[in-house]
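Changelog-adjacent note: as of this version, every example in the card shows the full chain rather than a window. The one below runs 188 residues end to end.
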Amino acid sequence: MDQNHLDQHQHQLDQNHLDQHQHQLDKHHLDQHQHSWTSTAGQAPPGPTPETEPAGPGSGPAPAGPGLLQEKSRLQQAVERLESALNEERSEHVKLEAVLAEKRRLEWNSESETQQIVVEKQQLNRRLSELQSELESEAAECRRLRSQAAMADAEVERLRRDLTNEQYEKERANQELRRLRSLQLLNF
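Full-length structure tokens:
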């Protein structure tokens, strides 16, 4: 809701408020006068009488009586009280609008931070999945290399045994060759 719309709404509320109070005041005033007229039915309305004020071409309207002045003063005070109450309501409305705007700002900041946290969490989850995949691949490679190392150790051990056997056989063959040569020399 923009400021122009808020101002129009506030103006309409103020006008409705004033119209209602004015209607109540008018009705109250009419009821009082109607009561006054009813209580004095059959009597002439207050005003100049031949005994108190002679009629003449230069005679003007009778001055307002003290009852009407009191009524006017009372109505003016009531209007002032209503205007004061209306000003207080306007001030309270402005304060509430400020509080509402601040609350909306905080909610927007909270939603923005929440969305940012969600995005960061998704990024961290993807990174964690990548690291877990890399770790599994490295673990599989490590197992493969260990297997190859074990096979290489077994091959080295086999070759060592073959070498030892071959050296033993060679030494035995040399001894047999020397013995045969020695026998041949004795026969000659």
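Structural remarks: The chain has a mean pLDDT of 79.
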